[in-house]
Amino acid sequence: MKLSPVELRHKLHQNPELSFHEFETTKILINSIKSLTNSSALKIHTPYKTGLLVEYTVNTGKYILFRADIDALPIKEENNVQFKSKNEFMHACGHDVHTSILFSLLRKVLEKEIDKNILFLFQPAEESGGGAMEFYGTKIFSKFNIASAFALHVTDEYPEGIIASTKGVLFASSLEVNIDFHGISAHVAFPAEGKNAFNALRLFLDYVDKLPKDISQPIVFGAGKILSGEVRNIIPGHARLEGTIRGLSGKKVSDFYNSLVNILYGIEKTTGVKIKIGKGSNYPEVIVNPKLYEKVVPALSKKFKFIDCGYKMTGEDFGFISHKYPSFMFWLGTSKGEKHGLHNPKFLPGDEAIAIGQSAFMELLNQF
Predict the structure, then answer these.
(1) Phi and psi angles of residue 168, each rounded to the nearest 5 degrees, phi first
(2) Sign of CA dihedral 47, 50, 54, 60
(3) Interstrand relation of 312-315 and 163-165 (parallel, antiparallel or unpaired)
(4) DSSP code, position 194
(5) Beta-carbon contacts of residue 79 (< 8 Å; ≥ 6 apart)
C-alpha cells in the first residue's frame, strides 16, 4: 500500500513505539519504501533489530548521509486529532515528522533520479540507549565512503519555516545518571532505628545546588524522576534519583559526574546510607562542521529565514554521528503561535513541516 509522506506521518503517530522496540515502525517503513516507483534503485539494509539504512548508489563517488530518528516516548498524548496515538506512548519529540521528512526526501530523489550517492538512515532509539552508536556498531557504515551527514529537529520554539543552527557545538553532551540510596526502613515514631534514604537524597540535591558555577562552561544537572517511600508513617529505606547531566563537551560532563561521586561519598560517610551511582545513555555533543556551515547556510538563507541560534543544552543522539563524519544539523521551526516544547503531551507540529523539511534537505543535497 502506497502512503504519502503525510499519511505515513499519521500512521506512525498513531502507532508509536519506544526505543529498541520499533519493530512495527520498521516494517511500515520498509513496506512504504518498497511500494515507491523506482524502488529497485534502492537497497535496504537491516543490520540491527530495528531501524534501517537505505542505500541509493548511482556512481562511484562518496555518499551523503541523511538521518531521521524513529522512536517515541512513554508519554500519553493529550491532543485531540484524528491520528492521535492509539497506545500509552507518543511521538512527543517529532520523530514521526523527522521520519516522514526523510521518506519524502527519498521519494523525491527517486522521482528526480538524482545523480548522487545517498544513504537514508532511519535510526532507532534516539531517546534512550544510544541507538546511533548501536547501529554504527553493526559496521554497516564501513561499506560506504561517507563525505558528510545531515539531520534536523523540529521545534515550536521558532515560527514555522525558520531554520536555526550554529557553528561548533549545537546540542550539548548528555549523560543519564541513576542514583540509588539504600538505608533502613523504620517507623516514623522511632527514626533512630532507621537510616532515612530520602533524607540522604535530599542532602545530595542541596549539595549539588551549592556547587560553584562556571558561566563560561555551563553545566546542567536535572533530576527528572525521584522515587521513595511506601507508606506515610514509615521512613523510606530506599530512594532513587534518575537525572541527566548536560555540558558543552564530554569532558566537562565527565568531570561533573566525578564531582557528584565525591559528594555522594561524603553523604554515605555522614548518614550511613549506602549509595550506588550508575551511568545510563551517554551522548556526545552535536558538532556542526564549520566548513559545512559556511557552505550550506548561504544557500539555505536564500529560501528560508535563517537564525544563528548558538548552542542549546538539548541532548541529541546525532552527536555520535557528528563525531564520525563532517555534519550539519539544524532546528526546523514549526510554531503557528503555540509553544508547548519538546517532550510535551501537546507537542504536535503541523503536517506542513514535512514539505518544508524535505525542501530544506533538497537544498542541502543541491550543494554537493
Answers:
(1) 80, -135
(2) negative
(3) unpaired
(4) S
(5) 345, 346, 348
Checking if the pLDDT of 292 tops 80, the result is: yes
**What kind and span of H or E run contains 67?**
strand 63-69
Between CA 297 and CA 307 the distance in angstroms is 10
Q: Which three cell numbers stand for residue 244?
A: 541527566
> 336, 350 in Cβ contact below 8 A?
yes
Are residues 42 and 54 in contact, defined by beta-carbon separation less than 8 angstroms? yes
Select which of 69, 96, 176, 285 is catalytic.
Answer: 69
- Averaged pLDDT, 343-362: 98
b/e 73-89 (16+ beta carbons within 10 angstroms → b): bebebeeeeebebeeeb
Q: Which of 111, 95, 118 is nearest to 29 (CA)?
A: 95
- Gap between the Cα atoms of 104 and 5, Å rounded: 6
Helix/strand/coil percentages in the chain, nearest 5: 35, 30, 35
Fold of the domain built from segment(s) 5-166+309-366: Aminopeptidase (3.40.630)
C-alpha span between 313 and 315 (Å, rounded) = 6
- Answer for the pair 241, 225: CB distance below 8 angstroms, yes or no: yes
Instruction: State yes or no: is 317 an active-site residue.
Output: no
Residue 215 above 90 pLDDT? Answer: no
* The CATH number fitting domain 173-282, selected from 4.10.240.10, 1.10.10.60, 3.40.50.800, 3.30.70.360: 3.30.70.360
| 127 has catalytic annotation | yes
> Are 293 and 186 spatial neighbours (Cβ–Cβ below 8 Å)?
no
Give the three cell numbers for residue 365: 543535497
- Domain extents for the chain? 5-166+309-366, 173-282
H helices within the chain, ranges in order?
5-14, 23-34, 95-112, 131-136, 197-209, 250-271, 290-303, 318-322, 352-366
- Report how far apart, in Å, the C-alpha atoms of 291 and of each of 63, 147, 328, 364 are: 17, 12, 10, 13
What's the pLDDT tens digit per position in 249-285?
Answer: 999 999 999 999 999 999 999 999 999 999 998 999 9
Q: 153 in helix, strand or coil?
A: strand
Q: Which of 71, 77, 127, 316 is the catalytic position?
A: 127
